[in-house]
Amino acid sequence: MKAQRVLTILAVILTIGLAMPTAQAQSTAPAKAANVVLVHGAWADGSSWAEVIPYLQAAGLKVTAVQNPLTSLEDSVAATRRALALQDGPTVLVAHSWGGTVISEVGTDPKVTALVYVAARAPDADEDFVALSGKFPQGAARAGIENHDGLTKLSEDAFLKYFANGVEPAKAKVLYAVQWPTAASIFAGRTTVAAWRSKPSWYAVSKQDQTINPDLERFLAKRMNATTVELDAGHLSLVSHPKEVADLILAAAGQK
Cα angle at 134 between 131 and 138, to 5 degrees? Predict the structure, then answer.
């Protein structure tokens, strides 16, 4: 009787095991994408992706870097939607820094197969991200924000020391020269959706980041259940570690 009970239990366990997919089966391979749209963050322009783009193009991907206006969340979302509309087929949407807010809003588009966040914000729908960030120690770069008539820039000292830490000094100075004025109001902007809740996501944490706290980045990556890499880099990992960032994008595009 006892032996029969054990056999019955084993049979039930086996049945459940066959009905439920294994962890490996659940983690399906990324959908193949032929296009990549890159969204830059605050105090930057599309040229911040210049080191990453050649790796993606060499892999045969069509790459578009959005010139994000940084005047409002709505304007930046519109610019990214325009770039996405021009893509022919499956597309990986990638963002750095504040640009993560934009792709969290735009990423529900049917063309988007995957999202990649590079030391980026990843707000939930209607989340007060400023309040969330306040739960983590503030990065040193924030002290260098200068506000001129509602538009912000980083001081040269803060940009070179904290925003571009880990970047070759000559290159960092060029990036400082092309930094784009950013409306102070965009940081409080809230998304209406969180695309990472429905799309597979990848995240590159910058361990030496002094703009967004690395522990906040880890929190965001874990919350979205992202495939995550940690880079020994400052905030501008896309400049200092372009191959590693490109490899993560290629993985999201099903090319790795």
Answer: 145
> Could you report the per-residue pLDDT of 54-105, keeping only the tens digit for each?
999 999 999 999 999 999 999 999 999 999 999 999 999 999 999 999 999 9
3-state secondary structure the chain: CHHHHHHHHHHHHHHHHHHCCCHHHHCCCCCCCCEEEEECCCCCCHHHHCCCHHHHHHCCCEEEEECCCCCCHHHHHHHHHHHHHCCCCCEEEEEECCHHHHHHHHCCCCCEEEEEEECCCCCCCCCCHHHHHCCCCCCHHHHHEEEECCEEEECHHHHHHHHCCCCCHHHHHHHHHCCCCEEHHHHHCCCCCCHHHCCCEEEEEECCCCCCCHHHHHHHHHHCCCEEEEECCCCCHHHHCHHHHHHHHHHHCCCC
Which amino acid appears at position 76 of this protein?
S
pTM: 0.89
pLDDT in tens, 150-165: 999 999 999 999 999 9
In this structure, how many other beta carbons lie within 10 angstroms of the beta carbon of residue 107?
A: 28
